[in-house]
From TrEMBL:
This is Uncharacterized protein.
Length: 166
């Protein structure tokens, strides 16, 4: 099974580009030669980034309207991809809170429609790409880096399967 997943990164915030310090911190993300040309290109993408940054007023509301634009964009990308071998995803920054927007990102992926099994209704293709651990709580760690180190050294990282749920 081909494991290619392409992710369009819409998680670039305005402050990442319009602050010299932030731009230099994330410079490897940008393929442009100058800050000016990067900013100009960013302005073309900004309406899509803004549309992916909607903050729901009532978090208890059943309808999650903040996911509409990223999902439409992802489906449009998928419809333009003529190969059945790759998957497309979109990464955008979290709008759950100011703190979450600094630490977390949201990802949206198209599923293949092929489940792991009749009992486990997770996408077989995405499952083959991602590894899973038991949940870890960020509050138990000193920093994101220490959490990442713990995850890298976790010997129980695995793909999901029927036994995972027993």
């Amino acid at each position: 099974m081909d494991r290619r997943i392409y992710v369009i990164d819409l998680a670039i915030k305005p402050e990442d580009l319009f602050s010299e310090r932030q731009f230099n911190k994330h410079k490897e993300m940008f393929s442009y030669k100058s800050l000016r040309s990067t900013r100009k290109s960013y302005l073309y993408w900004y309406p899509l980034i803004l549309g992916s940054s909607y903050i729901r007023r009532d978090k208890k509301d059943y309808f999650a309207s903040e996911y509409i634009i990223p999902q439409f964009f992802m489906h449009w990308l998928h419809s333009r991809d003529n190969t059945e071998t790759s998957s497309v995803g979109v990464r955008y920054f979290s709008c759950a809170s100011i703190r979450a927007s600094k630490f977390g990102y949201n990802y949206a992926f198209i599923t293949s429609g092929e489940n792991i099994s009749n009992e486990v209704c997770y996408c077989n293709k995405l499952n083959s790409v991602f590894k899973w651990t038991k949940p870890k709580y960020m509050m138990e760690f000193e920093s994101i880096e220490s959490l990442q180190d713990t995850l890298k050294n976790d010997s129980n990282i695995q793909n999901l399967n029927d036994e995972t749920f027993t």
